[in-house]
């Protein structure tokens, strides 16, 4: 099954996002043109030529970023996840809605993947943190909603990644608006 990429302009601090699409759905998301581990997408990977599919992906992201939709309503192709990683990501998608957050430890508990580690302090939470860092479907499977017990936690991409996480959590109303941005309702 072939993979092609759709580039969508966003108001994120990172600029456009690139989404890998297949006949089954969206398989990966890349911020700031970075590659996604294990996902073909470097120079030479074709852009999506299915205009209807590309328009649909762009429209769903635009609705989210404009505050008109709380879900992306796009099919997901889970091909770049498997085993416990997939279970944790599917738990996140199913149980943590727009405007909510969950701690790494609570997501570990809810997923059931780490039941053998019950009582082993922090190991499961750290494992979930690593899984969020390796989430090929960032944005659509909202790892920005997973936070540390004592703060925001991390987000891939270093300082830019943290700006993206803060921006998304502000959009969703989890964090208060900043002095220079009041959220999607403030758009002209």
UniProtKB/TrEMBL annotation:
Q: Mind listing the UniProt keywords for this protein, alphabetically?
A: DNA damage, DNA repair, Methyltransferase, Transferase
Note the Pfam families from the entry: DNA_binding_1
| Presence of keyword Nucleotide-binding | no
Q: What is its EC number?
A: 2.1.1.63
Q: Which reactions does this protein catalyse?
A: a 4-O-methyl-thymidine in DNA + L-cysteinyl-[protein] = a thymidine in DNA + S-methyl-L-cysteinyl-[protein]; a 6-O-methyl-2'-deoxyguanosine in DNA + L-cysteinyl-[protein] = S-methyl-L-cysteinyl-[protein] + a 2'-deoxyguanosine in DNA
Domain of life, source organism:
Bacteria
User: In what residue span(s) does the Methylated-DNA-[protein]-cysteine S-methyltransferase DNA binding domain sit?
Assistant: 91-174
Q: Which family does it belong to?
A: Belongs to the MGMT family.
The role this protein plays is: Involved in the cellular defense against the biological effects of O6-methylguanine (O6-MeG) and O4-methylthymine (O4-MeT) in DNA. Repairs the methylated nucleobase in DNA by stoichiometrically transferring the methyl group to a cysteine residue in the enzyme. This is a suicide reaction: the enzyme is irreversibly inactivated.
Name under which the protein is recorded: Methylated-DNA--protein-cysteine methyltransferase
């Amino acid at each position: 099954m072939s993979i092609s990429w759709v580039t969508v302009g966003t108001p994120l601090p990172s600029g456009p996002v690139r989404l890998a699409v297949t006949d089954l759905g969206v398989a990966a998301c890349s911020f700031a043109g970075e590659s996604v581990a294990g996902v073909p997408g470097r120079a030479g990977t074709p852009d999506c030529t299915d205009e209807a599919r590309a328009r649909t992906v762009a429209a769903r992201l635009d609705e989210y970023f404009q505050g008109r939709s709380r879900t992306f309503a796009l099919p997901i192709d889970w091909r770049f996840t498997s085993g416990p990683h997939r279970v944790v990501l599917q738990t996140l998608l199913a149980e943590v809605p727009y405007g909510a957050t969950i701690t790494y430890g609570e997501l570990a508990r809810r997923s059931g993947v780490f039941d053998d580690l019950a009582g082993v302090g922090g190991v499961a939470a750290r494992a979930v943190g690593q899984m969020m860092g390796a989430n090929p479907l960032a944005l659509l499977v909202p790892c920005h909603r997973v936070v540390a017990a004592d703060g925001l936690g991390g987000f891939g991409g270093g300082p830019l990644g943290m700006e993206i996480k803060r921006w998304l959590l502000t959009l969703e109303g989890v964090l208060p608006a900043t002095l220079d941005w009041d959220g999607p309702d403030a758009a002209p």
